[in-house]
């Protein structure tokens, strides 16, 4: 039979018992170890001295079986309920007949509240140094979400408060509800998976993580680093609605918005239809009053313009211009008439002078003009020869005569 596992083959294998014994021998060489976890299950059968516990990692779905003497549990200061966080000093053991690994505990201690608070405070400082608590990274909630994602306990009052109050405010609101464990060892895993699932749904506009309050130990899952980083990495706005009064889980600081109660969360994620309708009516009234005031003001200005003389009697300007033109025309006519009268008198006077000085007027008085044949006027008898033919022009016409000198 081979001495080492590397020497085995299909033709020369180890029997199950040999492998089981070798595993047991290897595990038996492991030293005792302190481990921390949450008690998922505690079984104490009557008539036995051994108690059986299932210890689970609070962040992931890993668990180990632990055996402890009942006297070890009896010496503890307080009872060990399921979900309690404990520190266990145990040595790994391997049960060869069943091939199972378990821990044999020789000391069990509760994790004190002070220690839990110190761990939460340390985690808070770490997250703050990474900027996950910075208010500037928080996203605004949508005014009217398409679908509200809700992470809550199964058949819980928190679910009822969120759904009923949201539908009372906005009856058409739609929900995508994930019912999970909100306390105990599986709470972190289930809440984290629910948040990631809703964040991956494009129809979900906002996610509400709701719980109806509780003691510090009950609220520990909402200060768990795994859950907090999942919420910080979500692209969908997250509302923390853990109903508590004194203690503040770190989810309140990492989430985009904090609601003091699940009822308050319903007020944050959806608007009140009655308030919105009242706001619309008020806005319409203000708009109507503004428009009426504006129209009244414009009408008043129009009335003021129309009451002015120039608009009350639009023909006034034309009448004034027409009157001015008529006056100017009258003045022009009077001036032109006077000018013509003076010119007429001047013409009459000149005509009289012309007639008085005209040769025709002289002829009318009986005088005659004597002209030689060449048309020259005879002014001296000495220039005329006897018998020369002369032309005599009188007022009534012309006649011929022969000159006779004396």
Structure description:
- With 406 residues, the chain is an alpha/beta fold.
- It is built from 13 helices and 13 strands.
- It has a 5-stranded mixed β-barrel.
- α4 (157-169) packs parallel to α9 (262-269) and α5 (187-200) runs parallel beside α7.
- The radius of gyration is 64 Å and the shape is rod-shaped.
- The chain starts with 15 loop residues before the first helix and ends with a strand.
Number of helices: 13
Question: The biggest beta sheet, please?
Answer: 5 strands, mixed, barrel
Beta strand count: 13
| Helix-strand sequence | HEEEHEEHEHEHEHHEHEHHHHHEEE
Could you tell me the strand content as a percent range? Answer: 15-25%
Instruction: Assign a percent range to the helix content.
Output: 40-55%
Strand order of the largest sheet: 1-2-3-5-4
**Shape field:** rod-shaped
Round the mean pLDDT to the nearest integer and report it: 86
How many discrete domains? 5
**Broad CATH class of the largest domain:** Alpha Beta
Distance between the termini: 210 Å
Low-pLDDT runs of 5+ residues are none
Structure classification: alpha/beta
């Amino acid at each position: 039979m081979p001495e080492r596992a590397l020497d085995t083959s299909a033709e020369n294998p180890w029997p199950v018992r040999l492998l089981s014994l070798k595993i047991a021998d290897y595990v038996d060489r492991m030293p005792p170890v302190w481990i921390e976890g949450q008690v998922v299950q505690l079984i104490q059968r009557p008539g036995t001295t051994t108690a059986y516990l299932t210890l689970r990692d609070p962040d992931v779905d890993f668990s180990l079986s632990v055996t402890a003497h009942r006297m070890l549990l009896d010496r503890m200061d307080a009872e060990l309920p399921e979900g309690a966080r404990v520190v266990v000093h145990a040595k790994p053991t391997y049960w060869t007949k069943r091939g199972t690994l378990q821990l044999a505990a020789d000391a069990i201690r509760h994790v004190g509240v002070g220690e839990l608070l110190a761990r939460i405070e340390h985690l808070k400082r770490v997250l703050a140094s990474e900027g996950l608590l910075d208010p500037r990274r928080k996203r605004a909630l949508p005014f009217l979400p398409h679908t509200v994602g809700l992470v809550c306990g199964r058949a819980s009052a928190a679910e009822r408060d969120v759904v009923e109050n949201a539908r009372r405010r906005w009856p058409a609101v739609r929900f995508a509800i994930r019912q999970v464990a909100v306390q105990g060892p599986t709470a972190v895993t289930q809440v984290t998976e629910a948040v990631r699932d809703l964040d991956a749904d494009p129809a979900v506009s906002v996610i509400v993580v709701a719980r109806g309050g509780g003691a510090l130990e009950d609220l520990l899952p909402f200060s768990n680093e795994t859950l907090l980083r999942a919420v910080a990495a979500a692209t969908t706005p997250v509302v923390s609605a853990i109903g508590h009064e004194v203690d503040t889980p770190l989810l309140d600081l990492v989430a985009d918005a904090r609601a003091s109660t699940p009822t308050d969360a319903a007020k944050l994620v959806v608007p009140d239809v009655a308030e919105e309708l009242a706001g619309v009516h008020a806005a319409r009234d203000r708009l109507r009053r503004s428009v009426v005031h504006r129209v009244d003001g414009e009408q008043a200005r129009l009335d003021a313009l129309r009451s002015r003389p120039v608009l009350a009697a639009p023909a006034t300007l034309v009448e004034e211009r027409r009157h001015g033109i008529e006056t100017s025309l009258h003045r022009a006519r009077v001036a032109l008439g006077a000018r013509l009268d003076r010119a007429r008198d001047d013409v009459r006077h000149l005509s009289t002078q012309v007639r008085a000085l005209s040769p025709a007027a002289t002829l009318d008085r009986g005088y005659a003009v004597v002209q030689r044949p060449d048309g020259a006027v005879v002014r001296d008898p000495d220039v005329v020869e006897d018998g020369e033919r002369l032309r005599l022009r009188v007022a009534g016409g012309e006649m011929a005569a022969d000159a006779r000198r004396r």
